[in-house]
Design brief:
- The structure is a homodimer.
- The first copy, chain A, is α+β, with helices and mostly antiparallel strands.
- Chain A has five helices and 15 strands.
- A seven-stranded antiparallel beta sheet of chain A has the order 4-3-7-10-11-6-5. Chain A has a three-stranded antiparallel beta sheet with strand order 2-14-15, with no helix packed on it. In chain A, strands 8-9 form a two-stranded antiparallel sheet.
- In chain A, strand 8 and strand 9 form a beta hairpin.
- The longest helix of chain A is centred in the C-terminal third of the chain and has 15 residues.
- Chains A and B meet through strand 1, strand 2, strand 5, strand 6 and helix 2 of A and strand 1, strand 2, strand 5, strand 6 and helix 2 of B.
- Strand 15 of chain A pairs antiparallel with strand 15 of chain B.
Chain lengths: 201, 201
């Protein structure tokens, strides 16, 4: 039996990403977001949503660029902090012990200490309710050697990204591997074929 | 040391959602997506991205509605299957053993067997690369009694949503609870205050 919970943002799994930009004074700033996701395969694009009132918003608009910094579970306190305070009053990079690395591809900094980074150039901007959605073309993905398999694919349990649950305002880790895509589903197709066979006999 | 992986869609955690709509013949259809995310808190909105060539795309355009159906880890084979075949040739609801429940709020079906459902009315449509982004206002969230805490919040480990890793094209489960938002970060703020205190003494 399903219960109606009302109009809520309870779409899980929700990511925990640090969006970084330069502010008008050229200082590196970042904020934590959970409203974001990939939005195209070709060219690879991601969208992040921030409110206009944030310091990060102005930085992204001015430089038409941002980075998506994907923290690991060991960085959950830093990620939480960067969502609690404003870059107007805080030097979040310094307070989190983060190194601001200048991207050579887009006019934005990235966080040296997170395992995975996406460097993005803003290609579309849309207002959706109280949030501004910045669609960014991903120009490069950078990952720590230590979280890679064969130098090309991610080792998910080493990246160990964080999941946000808006219903309890709490964080979760990634768990077990469940298996390969474009493989697990074959069992469903075979089940159907078996069923069809039964009927015709 | 960070390695450059090129322009890729490696933004984790990426969701695994079944988007459902009615086709032009009024049949319930669904497809699996990983390109989606919440994009506004007020009104609550979510975006899902599908290619124009898909059967689901036409259904969403015609009815200006869709549902986001969030499968549990026990439904990973069904979710994989629904991303492998087209609703033009397959009755995916029947083949997956899914019940199509008619939404009373939007002109779309939802999947009775998944633990969590978002009923959405299309409010914006954007073309992003090869994908069409449908921004939907979430009119209601429906969840199985069995995955709720106190009847209002989600029990994440019972919903047990699936995570997609585009780099290995494989699926993962949600793992440990990491702690409360707007709490864990206080330790970072205190560390900074402690640091300031040290310097002034």
């Amino acid at each position: 039996m399903k219960q109606s919970l009302g109009a809520k943002t309870f779409a899980v799994p929700t990511p925990v990403w640090l969006v970084a930009s330069y502010d008008s004074a050229g200082r590196a700033n970042c904020m934590t977001i959970a409203w974001g996701g990939i939005c195209s395969s070709q060219p690879p694009c991601v969208m992040v949503c921030v409110r206009k009132a944030t310091h990060t918003h102005a930085g992204i608009v001015q430089r038409a660029a941002y980075t998506v910094n994907i923290p690991s579970r060991t960085q959950v306190s830093e990620a939480d902090f960067a969502g609690m305070v404003s870059g107007r009053e805080h030097d979040k990079f310094a307070e989190c012990g983060f190194t601001a690395v200048r991207s050579t591809l887009v006019d934005a900094p990235y966080i040296g200490e997170v395992p995975l980074v996406l460097e993005c150039r803003v290609v579309q901007t849309h207002q959706v309710g109280i949030h501004t959605m910045f669609v960014g073309e991903i120009l490069d993905v950078k990952a720590d050697d230590s979280v890679l398999r064969d130098g090309r694919a991610l080792d998910m349990l080493k990246v160990s990204p964080i999941i946000y649950d808006a219903s309890t305002r709490s964080y979760f880790a990634v768990g077990d591997a469940l298996g390969p895509g474009w493989e697990l589903g074959k069992a469903i197709g075979q089940r159907k074929l078996a069923g069809v066979g039964d009927k015709t006999e």
